[in-house]
Amino acid sequence: MKKTDFGRTLRRPKRYFEHLKSNGGAARCHILADQGISVDPARVEAIKQFRRPENKTELLRFLDASGCGIGACLFQEDSLGNREAVAYISRTLTPTERHYAQIEREALGLTWAAEKWSDFITGKTLVVADSLSRNPLNSNEDRDELEDEVQVYVNFVIANVPVKDTYLQKIITAQMTDSTCQKLREYTLQEWPDRRELSNEMLQYYQYRYEISISDDILLKNNRIVIPPSLQKEVLDLIHSGHQGIVKCRRRAFTSVWWLGLSTQLANLIKSCPNCIEERVNLKETFIKEPLPSRPMEKIAVDLYKCNGKCQSNGAAEAAVKIAKSIIKKNKNRNIDVALLNYRATPLENGYSPGELMMGRKLKTLLPQLPGNLNSRISDADITKILNFEDDRKEKQRYYYEKRHRSKDLSELKKGDRVWIIDIRKYGKIVREESNPRSYVVETDSGIYRRNRWHLIPAPYIQDHDIQNSPQIVTSQNPSEHILNSDSTNCNFTKSF
């Protein structure tokens, strides 16, 4: 036992704190000797040997990630909030770790420090002294399990890339000969220059510098293989080999390959693929609110159709035509005029019947009613009320329609554009745009058709001789004598005024 100047007596074994280590392998921090408590010299060796910066590159060691080592500093905060350094650690990176992306090396430093000091920092704030990672000690200490675990993950990523070994070697060879990939390798293994020093071509990759790494000689962006320009067209065809849509092809690409502009190139490829275009269906377009006429006979829509045929009616009169067809079918053996009169005298949601809106008064039917009701007239105030009601009703229709169908406006077409016509399965060329919204006149090898934009899919790869030789799926009698209506497939000629 020995008594100190402070009146404390300690057992001799407790003087050698330097021999105590935590179960997790954390290094010792202080030495307690006859002269008192002192910092373990091994813990501050990295600071003592830190070389004074003599140029800009060395100064940047204090500011940027390291390509040669990792390091950390452990602080302890006193009751006044002041932080004092307790210990420092650093080590050089293994050859495998030097191939990591910059952000991965920084994450490695955090993980390594946290494992080293797990007994001290659990549940506390960790402060990383990243400058030590730029000037690590040349330590020969055995690497911990972290390196092995990381390497196992890297091997797992490479082994599970959906590419054959022979094709993978082809990609590596192309990367080695491509000038851009060579620069990316150089910057990843050494250090990225300041962005102001980069060429315009390499500046595009600057934002991805933390995600680019090298593993088994393969240049990667995260876990995706970087494809050089010489193989990009070939890889695009591989991605689209199953003729899936844009979203599915993008998802497939995002699991294995990467290059600048991949997403846009995939979209353009699929939009120009004949197999995909001929089986595609356009999204619903946004709702067009048809304003209510301000007076009777202001606007008239006529739709001629086969009563027993299966055709979509003229859009301008579609709802009324469906109702009329239903009434006619249900009253084949009865007085159709009476059935139509009953419909025209039945109030709509706005409280007024179609006949009343047309004639300005109620219609007399076979159903008994008070004579005074037949004398009522629609006033100007009633008209304003009706117009406001209908505008609100159609706005609600627009909202719920677009919400249900997730609709959007399709791109406009111009004269000369080549298109695929969905309903008749033929190629055609835009002749002109009609006055009706989203309506186009299209020329095909079997005649001229009027089609809504929803029926047309751009087909930029088609030429005039392809249109003339396109398969004739649906034909009409004397098609060249008139324009076939956009919704008149297998129906009589339709026209609206």
TrEMBL record:
Organism: Popillia japonica
E.C. no: 2.7.7.49
Top-rank lineage group of the source organism: Eukaryota
Cleaved signal peptide residues: none
Protein name stated in the entry: RNA-directed DNA polymerase
Keyword terms of this UniProt record: Endonuclease, Hydrolase, Nuclease, Nucleotidyltransferase, RNA-directed DNA polymerase, Transferase
Integrase zinc-binding domain: residues covered: 227-278
GO molecular function terms attached to this record: endonuclease activity; hydrolase activity; RNA-directed DNA polymerase activity
Transmembrane segments: none
Pfam families from the UniProt entry: Integrase_H2C2, RT_RNaseH
Domain named Reverse transcriptase RNase H-like: residues: 62-129
UniProt cross-references to PANTHER family, sorted A to Z: INTEGRASE CATALYTIC DOMAIN-CONTAINING PROTEIN, PROTEIN CBG26694
